[in-house]
Write a structure and sequence with these properties.
InterPro entries: AB_hydrolase_fold. Keywords: Membrane, Transmembrane, Transmembrane helix. This is Alpha/beta hydrolase family protein. It is a single chain. The two termini are 41 Å apart. The chain is an alpha/beta fold and 493 residues long. The radius of gyration is 30 Å and the shape is elongated.
Length: 493
């Protein structure tokens, strides 16, 4: 397994550690400079010689401290330059890749238009559009028994001809599909493609490019996906926000006397122990600091507009609508409601954690929170283009084989991305089909909790200051003999 990550704050963290060492050296140098020695006149010749030798060593140590301080200053400047250089180079490379991707996507849209036009005739685009108007006539024709008979015969004949091809395609997909979907190259390609859908559409419309930024483009795409998804399911169309989510008190997976999550494995284990969609733990530290840790779990029902829970695919698509400065939709709105009901106020330390849909929920909630949020840590969350509030530390833990986390496109610059490469063949899953047999194909194996548990363990084993900076408020805290206060909420519509 490998873990890679980059953050514009990386150089600042290293610089802070160098400053701490410099302060220690300055204090040592000051003690050496202000030292006092016994008078040589009051000492014997042998003792005076010993004192003189010690004085010489102290003088050398003081001079060495000065040299070391100078070296640290030069090293600090080098770290600053390296951080600036890395950030600038990264920005240039990202800009070039985005520009090239935009141009290629526009070209793909133009080529798609040409293909569609050639496939259905010179007036194909107009005919396809007019076909929508002809749907009532088609519906009337379908009521004629002769038309139904002819259509049925044509469909049967086409089915017999296509059967061998479909069987071969099905076999190919079953054999190689999981390997393709879980391949890091496919995941990266999907992540980039998701940010270019608007440019493909612009090319199809013969426009030079999309005027939208990538995050707005993804928001518009989520709106379209929501409408289409709800229409296809047969339910009345619901625009995001038209039917707000609500919360009701539920159980909590917290245990008496538990400590705050202070590592990636702690946080992920707490998410896995949840008994409600959203849970909030409150801790009071020995110095009086109040810490709230907010947890949001993964999707509960993989259907649109599910009658039993709002933690469904509708909330998944609504979460993609959450942009900075806008209204909060989906399960992100439920997280905000739970935070308000829990009594979180300004001045409290707020840390937010989420897995899959829960990751998108806490990332979106942080944008609309009325209080300062210290940190947002997401596991497998499709949060790429979700903005990061000013002053918030954002960490995205994702696997290079996780296609779900790629659905939100590339990450914004203000988020630290930690990417794991778990060996899916070695991960034992606890997933079964309807007959109780273990599932053999890991279609989204990189997204499974078992894969992220492996990644969380590897992250903690790194013992890296940048990776672990998010735990600073709790890992060094002196906890008194307090009892944890915890509450849970389920999400409905």
């Amino acid at each position: 397994m490998t873990v890679v990550g980059w953050s514009p704050d990386g150089a600042a963290v290293v610089r802070a550690r160098l400053a701490e060492v410099r302060d220690e050296l300055e204090r040592a140098q000051s003690r050496l400079r202000t030292r006092t020695w016994p008078s040589a006149a009051a000492l014997s010749i042998d003792d005076a010689a010993v004192v003189a030798g010690v004085q010489a060593l102290a003088d050398d140590a003081e001079a060495a401290c000065g040299l070391a301080i100078g070296d640290l200053d030069r090293l600090g400047v080098a770290v600053d330059l390296a951080g600036w250089s890395y950030q600038t180079t990264d920005a240039v490379v990202r800009g070039a890749v985005d520009w090239a991707a935009d141009r290629l996507s526009v070209g793909l849209g133009v080529a798609t238009r040409a293909f569609v036009t050639a496939a259905v005739g010179g007036l194909g685009i107009a005919v396809v559009g007019a076909g929508v108007l002809l749907m009532p006539l088609v519906a009337l024709a379908a009521r004629n028994p002769h038309v139904l008979s002819l259509a049925g015969g044509a469909i049967d004949a086409a089915s017999r001809l296509a059967a061998p091809l479909l069987q071969g395609l099905q076999s190919l997909v079953q054999q190689h599909g999981p390997d393709l979907v879980n391949h890091p190259v496919f995941v990266d390609a999907l992540r980039l493609a998701m940010a270019q859908l608007d440019d493909v559409g612009a090319g199809f419309a013969l426009l030079p490019g999309s005027p939208w930024r990538d995050d707005h483009a993804l928001g518009a795409g989520a709106m379209v996906a929501t409408l289409l998804g709800l229409v296809v399911t047969g339910h009345a169309p619901r625009l995001p926000g038209s039917t707000p989510v609500t919360i009701e008190r539920g159980a909590t997976g917290a245990v008496q006397g538990q400590a705050p999550a202070a590592s990636y494995t702690d946080a992920f284990a707490r998410i896995q122990s949840m008994e409600s969609n959203v849970e909030i733990d409150r801790y009071e530290l020995a110095d009086g600091t109040v810490v709230y840790q907010v947890f949001a779990g993964g999707t509960q029902e993989f259907a649109f507009d599910h009658p039993d829970t709002a933690y469904d695919m509708t909330s998944n698509t609504e979460n993609a609508m959450n942009v900075e400065g806008g209204e909060t939709f989906g399960s992100a709105d439920a997280v905000l409601q739970a935070m308000e009901e829990a009594g979180i106020g300004e001045g409290d330390v707020v840390q937010m954690f989420g897995y899959s849909q829960g990751g998108a929920a806490v990332a979106g909630a942080a944008l609309g929170a009325g209080v300062s949020v210290h940190s947002v840590v997401t596991f497998a969350g499709p949060v790429g283009r979700v903005a990061v509030p000013e002053g918030t530390m954002a960490v995205a833990v994702q696997n290079d084989s996780d296609v779900v986390s790629a659905l939100a496109g590339p990450h914004v610059d203000d988020r630290l991305v930690l990417e794991g490469s778990p060996n899916l063949d070695e991960i034992t899953t606890r997933r079964y089909d309807d007959a109780g047999q273990p599932l053999s194909d890991l279609w989204v194996g990189g997204h499974y909790p078992e894969a992220y548990w492996d990644t969380a363990q590897q992250l903690d084993a790194l013992d890296d200051d940048v990776v672990d900076a998010v735990w600073a408020p709790v890992e060094t805290a002196q906890l008194g003999p307090i009892e944890v206060e915890s509450a849970g909420w389920d999400v409905q519509r």
